[in-house]
Specification:
Number of domains: 1
Strand order of the largest sheet: 1-7-6-5-4-3-2
Oligomer: single chain
Distance between the termini: 30 Å
CATH topology: Alpha-D-Glucose-1,6-Bisphosphate, Chain A, domain 4
CATH class: Alpha Beta
Largest sheet: 7 strands, antiparallel
CATH superfamily: START domain
Helix content: 25-40%
Strand content: 35-45%
Order of helices and strands: EHHEEEEEEH
Number of strands: 7
Structural class: alpha+beta
Shape: globular
Number of helices: 3
Radius of gyration: 15 Å
Length: 149
């Protein structure tokens, strides 16, 4: 399944980057996302690994992930190494006319097994809701210049 959302904001790209440059802060953007470093104390960047969990109520679902794109004020992306196969990307770009900053979230996932596609379909609305919550929180904090929690 694929989820993509692009939003325009008046926030400065550096402010958005400040809020997402450490992937553990992404976990603070929504109550149902947890991002924990697998290498405590290591600086964020390409090759760093984290444990990502989405809380669906009954049980958290997630993966160990590795950062595969890390370009300050432009892009953060990871891919899963274990667990639910997924890819996550946040892109920060200036609008073509320069009037706003565009933030694009791309998330795709594939549950394993014969019934994986059925599980993906069943989870789609929840996953989309979790990601929408996080991206809305991110933009609200960026526009307000709020601290990372």
């Amino acid at each position: 399944m694929r989820i993509e959302r692009t939003l325009a904001t008046g926030a400065d790209p550096s402010e958005i980057w400040r809020l997402i440059s450490d992937p553990t802060a992404i976990g603070g953007l929504g109550e149902r996302i947890s991002v924990t470093p697998l290498e405590p104390g290591a600086e964020p960047g390409i090759g760093r690994r984290y444990r990502v969990l989405l809380d669906f109520g009954a049980a958290p679902v997630g993966s160990n992930v590795e950062i595969v794109e890390y370009t300050p004020e432009r892009e953060l992306a990871w891919t899963s190494l274990t667990g639910v196969d997924h890819r996550f990307r946040l892109r920060i770009r200036e609008a073509a006319d320069g009037s706003a900053t565009m933030l694009t979230l791309r998330f795709s996932y594939d549950s394993p097994g014969l019934l994986g596609p059925v599980a993906d379909l069943a989870a789609f609305r929840s996953v989309r809701s979790i990601l929408r919550e996080a991206i809305d929180s991110l933009l609200a904090r960026a526009e307000a210049g709020a601290p990372v929690s």
